[in-house]
Write a structure and sequence with these properties.
The complex is a heterodimer of chains A (about 500) and B (about 200). In chain A, a hairpin with a 6-residue loop joins strand 1 and strand 2 (about 185-190). Chain A has helices at about 1-10, 10-30, 35-45, 50-75, 85-125, 125-135, 140-155, 160-175, 200-220, 240-245, 245-260, 265-280, 285, 295-315, 325-335, 345, 350-380, 385-400, 405-425, 430-455, 460-465, 465-490, and strands at about 180, 185-190. Helices cover about 75% and strands about 0% of the residues of chain A. Chain A has one domain (about 1-490). In chain A, helix 2 runs parallel beside helix 4, helix 4 packs antiparallel against helix 5 and helix 5 crosses helix 14. Chain B has about 200 residues and is mainly alpha-helical. Chain B has two domains: about 20-100, no CATH class; about 110-190, no CATH class. Helix content of chain B is about 65%, strand content about 5%. A two-stranded antiparallel sheet of chain B has the order 1-2. The radius of gyration of chain B is 25 Å and the shape is flat. The relative contact order of chain B is 0.08. The chains are: A mainly alpha (about 500), B mainly alpha (about 200). At the A-B interface, helix 3, helix 5, helix 8, helix 9 and helix 18 of A face helix 2, helix 3, helix 6, helix 7 and helix 8 of B.
Chain lengths: ~500, ~200
């Protein structure tokens, strides 16, 4: 059965379809403001007319391609295509300004390739272990994981003053509360507006905060920065990849496990790997963090790509999507009358193997296509900012509008852009705000569920959950470390 | 002694080549700006808490819809106070007492800030006009129906204006670039991905 599935995935037509999906995914992800989730959601329609296997190959190609594609615009124009590309943006864009954009992207591609492999191999080899670990994450643990993600993002993106990063994250949490509450259906911060009852989608917030803010910030400058058009070396030397292998393995494990936890997603994975990577890096490498570190790019890209394999685990075995793009895969499968879940091996024998091999093929194609696209991308994005930035304005408008076909989202994008510009002028980082808008509903629902479970129970009951207690300590340590780090450094 | 006051690294200002480092003016965080920001954030946090307290409580306090919003508002208030205290210690009050009008004057004296305001104005008008003016022209041919909607028209006009101001190329060149880009973009989304565009469709 396994051999049959391998042969199906290797047929020329399947390879072509997967390549089309990968190319489309990379180009989509590379366009500022167009995210993986958006690609997956909008391209389901294109896959509807395809056969079951063809549609799966296409969607896997799009998924793999678009996750990497986010790194291209992040490195070259400082606008991440996807939220999980923010750490890559912080490091890679600085390198691009120094004329090392090609190598920064090449490192991101190699790390993405490695991350995908790790996710797939861990998925195949350790399904029961990862699944049992992921299933230990109940409401309390999910709440703590979400808060840890926001706290770490605040710490990592705000340099010397984590307080500003956390404030930005907390503002994002408040934005996430807008809309009907998920448990009782009570309107929160809607002020009587029906349109606000649907809540605020993170897609226009992301586009506004990173896309529009960057345009308003860069375009008026008399001498905006330029990205050197000389690409230079793209494929990173093997020696440096070996040098970063420990960081890659650690980040891959982290990315896969977090991907397997329903709801956590690549955003949390890339920031956690970025933070852990910094703590574990050698002092001379740690000093480069935030100023253009290749090791940091490896950590973030390996983690968010390993997340793909991880996110497929609960999606296929439990029918619970690991993240939003995995939910789109689930929807594409349902369009083909494939209901995934614990009985998938009985009802659709061989499908899991087909998906595994599809991911492997997509990974190889992504590597080849990404390497081929680096030089044209650097050339394209090295255009003068005064020409490039205005062209992104209509793209931001389409990106904000496309998912819900709702004009309100364009106003959200506009508002987010203006607030982002203001926050930037006052020295507040923007990444925690976006991450909190994404993780806010997860934190809110899970905290309230957990409190209901803990009602009338002693504190020892709460502390008797080992993963929850470890996470609680880690969250406390993150805040402690952020608050007192400056004093320690002094 | 005034404590060391460093600007946080944000996605926009990291690296030596960023304009924040080169310009170094009001784009950097200053104690006065932090003090002003902490006051606004504290007021916002109180507002968030007050609304959270007024939310209905259909079940127990543990599932109250306002629980996490209240806690978030409270912790945000504490953080804002922390930021305020830190900026006061760094001389923020002195900076603020120099007069908010000085900050406003400095802001408008900077040509880059004026250009930023102009750009913001153009983008706001672009968004509003795209919603208000909607039409959809169809040009059927033997093989294909070509659409031209208000979105393309408004985008071409806006882009031409923005390019003329900031790129400073000849008007015809700006128009040609804008027309090519707006039509290409709209065509990809409309014909290849079957996605409706704002305004026209």
């Amino acid at each position: 059965m396994i051999l049959d599935q391998i042969l199906v995935t290797l047929s020329p037509y399947m390879l072509f379809i997967c390549l089309a999906g990968v190319t489309l995914g990379i180009l989509w992800g590379a366009m500022p403001g167009l995210s993986t989730t958006m690609a997956m959601v909008l391209l389901i329609g294109l896959s509807a007319g395809m056969g079951q296997n063809v549609a799966i190959m296409f969607m896997l190609g799009v998924y793999t391609g678009s996750v990497f594609g986010g790194a291209i615009s992040a490195v070259l124009i400082n606008i991440p295509g996807t939220p999980d590309a923010v750490p890559t943006m912080i490091e890679g864009h600085t390198l691009a300004k120094k004329g090392q954009g090609g190598l920064a992207l090449g490192t991101a591609i190699a790390a993405s390739f490695l991350g995908n492999w790790m996710g797939i191999l861990l998925l195949i080899a350790f399904i029961p272990v990862i699944l049992s670990l992921a299933l230990q994450f109940r409401s309390w643990e999910m709440f703590l994981l979400a808060m840890w993600g926001i706290a770490i993002c605040g710490t990592m993106s705000s340099g010397e003053l984590p307080l500003k990063g956390w404030i930005s994250g907390w503002i994002g949490l408040i934005v996430a509360f807008v809309g009907l509450d998920a448990i009782h259906g009570v309107p929160r911060y809607t002020f009587g507006s029906l349109i606000l009852e649907d809540g605020i989608s993170y897609v226009p917030v992301l586009i506004g905060l990173f896309g529009l803010t960057e345009i308003i910030r860069v375009l008026p400058q008399k001498n905006p920065y330029i990205i050197p058009a000389e690409v230079g070396r793209v494929v990173p030397p093997l020696r440096s990849l070996i040098k970063y292998s420990r960081a890659a393995i650690r980040s891959g494990l982290l990315g896969t496990v977090i991907g397997a936890i329903p709801g956590a997603g690549a955003n949390v994975a890339s920031f956690l790997a970025y933070d852990v990577g910094k703590r574990r890096a050698k002092p001379e490498e740690r000093a480069k963090w935030g100023k253009g570190s290749y090791e940091a790019i490896v950590c973030a890209e390996v983690a968010n790509n390993a997340n793909i394999g991880g996110s497929m685990l609960p999606t296929l075995t439990l029918g619970i999507p690991g993240n939003a793009p995995a939910a789109a895969i689930l929807a594409a499968l349902e369009l083909k009358n494939v209901v995934v879940g614990p009985a998938i091996q009985i009802e659709h024998p061989g499908l899991i193997y087909f998906i595994y091999f599809g991911l492997i093929i997509a990974n190889f194609l992504m590597y080849g296509m990404a390497i081929a696209l680096v030089k044209p991308s650097v050339k394209l994005f090295s255009l003068p900012r005064s020409l490039l930035m205005p062209l992104i304005i209509p793209l931001c408008v389409i990106g904000a509008y496309a998912v819900n076909q709702n004009y309100f989202d364009i106003y959200v994008m506009l508002g987010a852009g203006l607030i982002g510009y203001l926050l930037h002028r006052f020295g507040f980082p923007l990444a925690p705000l976006v991450l909190a808008v994404i993780l806010g509903p997860l934190a809110d629902e899970n905290l309230r569920r957990a409190l209901l479970v803990f009602e009338n129970k002693s504190i020892w009951f709460v502390l008797s959950r080992p993963i929850g207690t470890i996470l609680l300590l880690v969250v406390c340590f993150t805040f402690y470390d952020g608050l007192f780090r400056r004093k320690k450094t002094k | 002694m005034v404590p060391e006051y460093k600007s946080p690294v944000t996605p926009g200002n990291q690296g030596k080549g960023s304009s924040a480092d080169k310009a170094g003016r009001d784009k950097r965080s200053t104690p006065a700006k932090d003090l002003a920001a902490s006051a606004v954030i504290a007021a916002f946090a109180v507002f968030v808490m007050l609304i959270a307290l007024r939310m209905p409580k259909p079940g127990t306090v543990y599932t109250a819809p306002g629980l996490l919003p209240f806690l978030t508002g409270l912790t945000l208030l504490i953080m804002a106070v922390g930021l305020g205290i830190r900026s006061i210690r760094a001389g923020g009050v002195r900076g603020l007492l120099q007069g908010p009008d000085k900050g406003v004057r400095d802001h408008f004296a900077d040509i880059e800030n004026l250009r930023a305001l102009l750009l913001i104005g153009i983008i706001i008008i672009y968004v509003i006009v795209t919603e208000q003016i909607t039409f959809d022209l169809r040009f059927p041919t033997d093989f294909f129906v070509f659409y031209f909607s208000s979105y393309e028209l408004i985008s071409i006009i806006t882009l031409t204006l923005v390019l003329r101001i900031f790129w400073r190329a000849a008007l015809v060149r700006c128009f040609l670039v804008s027309a090519f880009w707006a039509i290409a973009l709209a065509s990809v989304f409309r014909y290849a991905f079957h996605i409706l565009l704002p305004g026209g469709g």
